[in-house]
């Protein structure tokens, strides 16, 4: 059995991502992204699952900073998880949920459900917890509270709460990307069912003349008909005026086109580092044995 | 006196940003980014200061989502604040700070100081609070705790704590960008001292063929020698395969070049929206009457 580290606590979207691809393995929650990456570098764990894009649990900047400046840990997979927040209460309060006086959740989750909370529970007081699952745990521990939590389906299961209103977040189509890191590059993650494509992530440094040089960089991809799915500029830590780019290409490393683009970029004076070449997986929400209950609206 | 809304609570980096440009005005903390923007749209406040880039307090995705999908509130200024985290204790414990047993802070701040805490205070237990300033408040309220907080200089002042170790974050050159929003475009923010430049932020939508079309978009800027300082692709909320770009140009809207680039992009079939054209300000850390104490190392 492998040890899979992830950004905890239990009951968060990162755990949902980890469970969806590593069911049956030993899952080990870590308190912070750097602690999880350090453990992987030290070989205390075999794989790490951490958020790459901005989410209520983590920070893209932190993950990228540590991937680029501190560790050389290849990305071996990406997992996209739909961010679906639900309103949940202790089962004894499910009938009278409209009368609840207090709502608990992580500050970002409260913000994501701003319109719902303002419209449907205008009189409720809002209280912050350190994670969405901590809010669910609180309600589980003290059934006497006339309160609801905003959290995900995993937290509802874990703490025996009843979901009384599904998808209470303001915007649809919210997804968060998590990456799976390993000590060495690997193509082990290939479950056909949930595979949505492949990706190669490059870090390209560009010492000066941002717009002209970036235009050149994109030429190297455009004339080879290599499709990009993401481009993001980030300032180097070394000073103002130096940038690097994180570029996602929608295919695995091949023998001709991608190596050709990389060679062309290096000839232009750019630095190129391949952060990973890996399959993209999609995590469906219904994990394990969730028994669906009818939802009163 | 104007009412300036900002993402609270008091003692956070967002308050530092707000104080640095709106000293003397009435500052009103809001619990969430959407609540602050709603209040501005409803004219309950005159200006709003919210984080635009990823930070321990907020989320770029949320700010951009609400700016693009919900409100039409122009950016009238940008404030960059250096993110400097310090280790602080109750004054009665300043001598024995190396013996503290517990460290309190926001989870992202704890993560940002991972190396320092692992090296210097390996035996201390880590505890999470909802904001860095909440950690400082906790120590202020209960001097009997043998504990330290990781927070900023404003929180140390506000809660009368002694900074025993400065700049305990792992990476230097951490800055966070905040934006000032108003109901209407304005050039009112022009304090010469801290002005580092100007910026125009465009949202460009690109229906298909990401890499080829983006290459064309950049041509419109490159041949006019318009310098970009940031480019970021984001998926539209309407479905997979549609993207928009947030592009920063390092100058104010002019009469010829920028309107020419916009017209060219529109002729190529892109949608263009100007999110703001505004001065960039830099917030120095020493605000108000901070009395510097010697720092034991």
Automatic annotation (TrEMBL), chains A, B:
GO molecular function, one term: prephenate dehydratase activity
Sorted UniProt keywords: Amino-acid biosynthesis, Aromatic amino acid biosynthesis, Lyase, Phenylalanine biosynthesis
Keyword Amino-acid biosynthesis carried by entry: yes
Catalyzed reaction equations: prephenate + H(+) = 3-phenylpyruvate + CO2 + H2O
One Pfam family per UniProt: PDT
CC per GO annotation: cytoplasm
GO biological process assignments: L-phenylalanine biosynthetic process
NCBIfam families: PRK11898.1
PROSITE patterns cross-referenced by the UniProt entry: ACT, PREPHENATE_DEHYDR_1, PREPHENATE_DEHYDR_2, PREPHENATE_DEHYDR_3
Lineage: Bacteria, Bacillati, Bacillota, Bacilli, Bacillales
Site feature: Essential for prephenate dehydratase activity: 176
Domain Prephenate dehydratase residues, every copy: 3-183
Listed InterPro entries: ACT-like_dom_sf, ACT_dom, Chor_mutase/pphenate_deHydtase, Preph_deHydtase, Preph_deHydtase_CS
Ranges for domain ACT: 202-279
PANTHER family: PREPHENATE DEHYDRATASE P PROTEIN (PTHR21022), PREPHENATE DEHYDRATASE-RELATED (PTHR21022:SF19)
Catalytic class of the enzyme: lyase
EC number(s) stated in the UniProt entry for this protein: 4.2.1.51
Pathway: Amino-acid biosynthesis; L-phenylalanine biosynthesis; phenylpyruvate from prephenate: step 1/1
Protein name in UniProt: Prephenate dehydratase
Entry keyword annotation includes Lipid metabolism: no
């Amino acid at each position: 059995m492998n040890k899979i580290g992830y950004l905890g606590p239990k009951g968060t979207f990162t755990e949902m991502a980890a469970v969806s691809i590593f069911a049956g393995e030993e899952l080990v929650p870590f308190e912070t992204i750097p602690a999880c990456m350090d453990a992987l570098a030290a070989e205390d764990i075999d794989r790490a699952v951490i958020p790459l894009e901005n989410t209520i649990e983590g920070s893209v900047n932190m993950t990228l900073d540590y991937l680029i400046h501190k560790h050389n840990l290849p990305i071996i997979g990406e997992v996209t998880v739909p961010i679906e927040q639900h309103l949940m209460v202790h089962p004894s309060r499910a009938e009278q949920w409209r009368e609840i006086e207090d709502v608990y959740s992580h500050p970002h989750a409260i913000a994501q459900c701003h319109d719902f909370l303002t419209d449907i529970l205008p009189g409720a007081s809002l209280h912050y917890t350190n994670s969405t699952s901590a809010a669910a745990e609180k309600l589980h521990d003290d059934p006497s509270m006339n309160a609801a939590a905003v959290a995900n389906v995993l937290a509802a299961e874990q703490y025996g709460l009843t979901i009384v209103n599904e998808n209470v977040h303001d915007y649809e189509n919210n997804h968060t990307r998590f990456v799976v890191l390993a000590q060495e590059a690997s193509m082990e993650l290939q479950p056909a069912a949930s595979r949505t494509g492949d990706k190669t992530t490059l870090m390209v440094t560009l010492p000066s003349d941002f717009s002209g040089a970036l235009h050149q960089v994109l030429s190297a991809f455009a004339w080879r008909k290599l499709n990009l799915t993401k481009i993001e500029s980030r300032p180097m830590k070394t000073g103002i005026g130096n940038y690097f780019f994180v570029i996602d290409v929608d295919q695995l490393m091949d023998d001709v086109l991608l190596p050709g683009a990389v060679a062309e970029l290096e000839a232009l004076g750019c630095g190129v580092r391949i952060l990973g070449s890996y399959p993209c997986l999609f995590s469906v929400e219904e994990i394990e044995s969730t028994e669906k209950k009818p939802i009163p609206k």
